Design the sequence.
């Protein structure tokens, strides 16, 4: 048992750090490369390097990933896991991963590769059990990273700069922008230096490696499909629950009894942890529709409560004026209700947009619908591929930023005073 | 169109009696100025006439819903809309913008007509509100303190505007200024004198005016003929 492990360790090369050189000497004794199964598991098609490693270093197994029994798994791990790993403790996590369709052979290969790269088995255990463990939100650690705030400053700077006019202003805003760019560059350098200092690609990926990983991902043919699938699910969920929230608030505003009935449910929705919804929806809806329905539980309460507050902020004096002069329903809505609730709707949108992306991606990581960004991130976790995780995080941030831009543009259009529609323009 | 008849109107908020057996008859096409100190229930009377409030007792006849236009004590304008749009908002579809613009131009400088009303001064907003009430196709026009915040010249211009565009409608104006009433050629109404002397009707609200000092309500309608302008 120890002999093959030493064999691997003697290679001294972490498998994915040198992906080009396939470990030709890394085969187990008595096993030929030709014994490896020819067909690759379709669900892991994007991770060909690791797969190759698995096929060449582990005994072939034609078993479907989800048909492993507990004792079979235990025996398999005992036989193949590297020394120093507590197989018993790792088993629940492995079982869960296998239940989600991950090949145990790949997991073992990943663990072996990580240990070869110098990772602590304890730490490894923590990372591997993360998905089933206590803190699921840590599955998307980089959403609060410097990148996120940088993206925010960039977008903020762009919109601030538009309003200024005149040479003096233009000069000042140019200086401001330059300063901001300098600060961003500073943090990028800090990030890169930190990466060089740590010099462990499992722990941190610097900007250069992140960009490399990103370029690699974009080059893949299914990159846009993956992005589109995640974007589509989250956008659809967001827009549906956005509309539903407005509608519910409208009805609740009109009918007090309805509101009394809905209110406790909404406050319930606000306090239930997101993970509970994810787990429940996984049971109810399956993983494909998970993110669409998840948005309902995240976005709906925010939009609903804000819209209620918005409707309540409508000036009762103006409604009286409309009533006396028999203003039509449509005009009352467009010219008295709309200006009052739009600010509330905009703030609800800002709040729930970010949340729907964060929780949506988290749900995808846990549920791994196919194709999705979350699944790619889960894979990155599985293979301890930190640069990939960073790269996908950047993709998520860009997509959510684009979505927010699009939505806030539409909202700005909807909030514009529509007085020019009134009356007929005489010649 | 028929006369507006208010009879036995009583309204109280809790223990506080606001209106007690108010009796008024507003002849069709007449101009009336309601002289009343603040807090005497004049706004409540208007609100009941406009159907915004229910009277405890009594009735208002002769005002069709949607056939009364009002200028409230507050401006109640759509802040984002221009004066032209604020006025045209209450008018039927396909109303010609240039007609409304001309109407507003009579009391407002023309360069402010394209600005949102939130950028206008208090006096300008007041005039927009006035034009809106006058422009609305109604049978009765109710103006609650229309001249507050206007200087003497503007007051004159506003009164001229009202008289010119009244088009024979019944006009009820609440104001403190005796002079305004004269310029309008209005019949004066004093709210505390409109309360009916009949003790049994007024019993709904505890304290009432001494019957001997209050003139009969119907005498008020008699002396308006010589003040008509239109």
Sequence:
């Amino acid at each position: 048992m120890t002999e093959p492990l030493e064999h691997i360790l003697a290679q001294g090369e972490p498998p994915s750090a040198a992906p080009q050189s396939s470990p030709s000497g890394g085969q187990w004794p008595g096993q030929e490369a030709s014994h490896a199964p020819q067909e690759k598991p379709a669900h892991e098609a994007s991770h060909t390097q690791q797969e190759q490693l698995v096929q060449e270093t582990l005994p072939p197994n034609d078993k479907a990933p989800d048909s492993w029994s507990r004792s079979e798994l235990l025996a398999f791990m005992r036989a193949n896991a590297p020394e120093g790993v507590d197989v018993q403790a790792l088993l629940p996590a492995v079982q869960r991963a296998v239940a989600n369709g991950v090949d145990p052979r790949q997991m073992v290969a990943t663990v072996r590769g990580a240990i070869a790269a110098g990772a602590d088995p304890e730490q490894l255990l923590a990372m591997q059990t993360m998905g089933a463990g206590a803190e699921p939100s840590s599955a998307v650690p980089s959403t609060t990273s410097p990148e996120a705030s940088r993206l925010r400053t960039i977008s903020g700077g762009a919109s601030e700069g538009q309003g200024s006019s005149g040479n003096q202003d233009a000069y000042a805003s140019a200086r401001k922008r330059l300063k901001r760019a300098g600060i961003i560059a500073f943090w990028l350098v800090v990030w890169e230096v930190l990466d060089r200092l740590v010099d462990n690609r499992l722990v941190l990926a610097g900007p250069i490696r992140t960009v490399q990983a990103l370029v690699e991902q974009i080059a893949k043919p299914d990159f846009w499909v993956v992005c589109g699938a995640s974007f589509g699910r989250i956008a659809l969920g967001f827009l549906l629950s956005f509309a539903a929230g407005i509608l519910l608030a409208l009805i609740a505003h009109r009918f007090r009894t309805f509101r009394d009935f809905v209110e406790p449910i909404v406050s319930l929705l606000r306090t239930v942890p997101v993970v509970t919804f994810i787990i429940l929806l996984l049971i109810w809806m399956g993983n494909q529709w998970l993110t669409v329905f998840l948005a309902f539980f995240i976005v709906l309460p925010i939009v609903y409560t804000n819209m209620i507050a918005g409707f309540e902020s409508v000036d009762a004096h103006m409604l009286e004026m409309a009533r006396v002069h028999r203003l039509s329903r449509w005009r009352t809505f467009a010219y008295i209700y709309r200006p009052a609730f739009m600010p509330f709707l905009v703030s609800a949108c800002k709040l729930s947009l970010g949340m729907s992306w964060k929780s949506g991606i988290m749900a995808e990581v846990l549920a791994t619908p196919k194709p999705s960004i979350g699944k790619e991130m889960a894979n990155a976790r599985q293979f301890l591929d930190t640069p990939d995780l960073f790269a996908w995080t950047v993709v998520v941030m860009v997509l959510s930023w684009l979505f927010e831009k699009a939505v806030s543009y539409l909202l700005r259009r909807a909030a514009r005073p529509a007085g020019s529609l009134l009356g007929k323009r005489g010649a | 169109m028929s006369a507006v008849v208010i009879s036995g109107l009583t309204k109280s908020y809790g223990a506080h009696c606001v209106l007690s057996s108010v009796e008024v008859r507003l002849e069709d096409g007449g101009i009336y100025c309601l002289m009343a100190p603040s807090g005497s229930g004049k706004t409540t009377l208007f609100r009941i006439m406009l159907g915004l409030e229910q009277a405890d007792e009594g009735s208002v006849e002769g005002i069709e819903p949607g056939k009364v236009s009002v200028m409230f004590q507050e401006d109640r304008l759509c802040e984002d809309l221009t004066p032209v749009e604020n006025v045209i908002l209450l008018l039927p579809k396909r109303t010609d913008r240039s007609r409304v613009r001309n109407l507003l131009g009579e009391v407002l400088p023309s360069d402010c007509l394209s600005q949102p009303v939130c950028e206008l001064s208090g006096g300008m907003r007041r005039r927009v509100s006035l034009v809106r009430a006058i422009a609305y196709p109604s049978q009765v026009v109710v103006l609650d303190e229309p001249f507050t915040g206007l200087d003497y010249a503007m007051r004159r211009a506003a009164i001229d505007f009202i008289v010119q565009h009244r088009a024979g409608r019944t006009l009820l104006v609440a104001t403190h200024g005796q002079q305004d009433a004269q310029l309008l050629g209005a019949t004066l109404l004093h709210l505390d004198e409109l309360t009916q002397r009949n003790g049994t009707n007024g019993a709904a609200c505890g304290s009432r005016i001494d019957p001997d000092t209050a003139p009969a309500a119907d005498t008020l309608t008699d002396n308006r003929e010589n003040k008509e302008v239109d």
In short: DSSP finds 17 helices and no strands in chain A.
